[in-house]
Amino acid sequence: MQAKIAEIFKSIQGEGIYQGREQVFVRFYGCNLKCQFCDTPLTHYEELRPEELLNRINIFGVDYHSLSLTGGEPLLQSDFLKETLPSVKKEGIKIYLETNGILHKELAEIIDYLDIIAMDFKLPSSTAMPAFWDEHKKFLRIALKKEVFVKAVICNNTHKEDIEKSINLIRYFRKDIPFVLQPEFSQMQDSGLKDVIWHYKHLASSYLKDVRVLAQLHKLQGVR
Ligand code: SF4
Q1: Model pLDDT, residue 194
Q2: Residue 72 CA: which ligand 1 atom is closest?
Q3: 129 pLDDT tier (thresholds 50, 70, 90)
Q4: Exposure of 27 by Cβ count < 10 A (0-12 exposed, 13-18 middle, 19+ buried)?
Q5: What is the 3-state secondary structure (H, E, C) of 114-180?
Q6: Cis, bond preceding 92 (omega within 30 deg of 0)
Q7: Do residues 179 and 194 touch, judged by C-beta distance below 8 A?
Q8: Which residues neighbour 140 within 8 Å (Cβ) at sequence distance 6 or greater?
Q9: Is the pTM of this model over 0.90?
Q10: What's the distance, CA 115 to chain centroid?
Q11: Ligand 1 pocket, 152 CB below 6 A?
């Protein structure tokens, strides 16, 4: 079995509650969504077998926080992950999954090998796509077997209703699941977005224990 992999590199995690941690990133090619703010144009890939990917990961040694499976959407290649992750675990490497939080059946197949799950809520008013609340609920239920946090991209046209639905979905399970509001990068200097995001931060903090506003650190620092 082979996977389509766009790039493998070492850098700092720029998003979410592990911002600033050093990771090795494996970026899987392809996505099941088309978010309007997508900043990951995937134009090329190479096909690697599990042992080839392991060799490429081993080049970086073991002196980093975790291996980030990112994309695109890594769970589109869950059969490959099922075959590969047991060997990665044997090396003692912590596995961090970055996902759009929709493919819950695929998550269930590999959850045992994961350590940390960074899942998105795709807010329809931010993505200009349909809502995925049912999928996110099923996904989060499985993800809670491991460490998980939720991240949502906030644009200046993000609706309050989507924030309220996010809050309700998280507190349905546990109030202490971290909820990260991430300003859409191209709108960062927009004063309207700043007002909106802090308003939503205060709203969410009325119901949840750990709500954070975090910009994309790697873009601010100009690293990939
Ligand atoms: S889920 Fe992520 S990679 Fe896929 S289209 Fe949306 S932003 Fe891009």
Answers
A1: 87
A2: 3
A3: very high
A4: buried
A5: CCEEEEECCCHHHHCCCCCHHHHHHHHHHHCCCEEEEEEEECCCCCHHHHHHHHHHHHHHCCCCCEE
A6: no
A7: no
A8: 101, 119, 148, 150, 169, 170, 173, 177
A9: yes
A10: 13
A11: no
Q: Using CB atoms within 10 A of its CB, is residue 123 exposed (0-12), middle (13-18) or buried (19+)?
A: buried
Which atom of ligand 1 is the closest one to the Cα of 34? 5
Ligand 1 atom nearest residue 153's Cα: 7
Residue 112 has pLDDT above 90, yes or no: yes
Distance, in Å, from the CA atom of 177 to the CA atom of 179, rounded to the nearest integer, reads 6
What structural domains and CATH numbers belong to the chain?
A: 3-221 (3.20.20.70)
Q: What is the pLDDT of residues 76-100, one digit of tens each?
A: 999 999 999 999 999 999 999 999 9
How many angstroms separate the alpha carbon of residue 90 from the centre of ligand 1?
Answer: 30
- Please indicate whether residue 32, judged by its CB atom, sits closer than 6 Å to ligand 1: no
pLDDT in tens, 39-63: 887 889 999 999 999 999 999 998 9
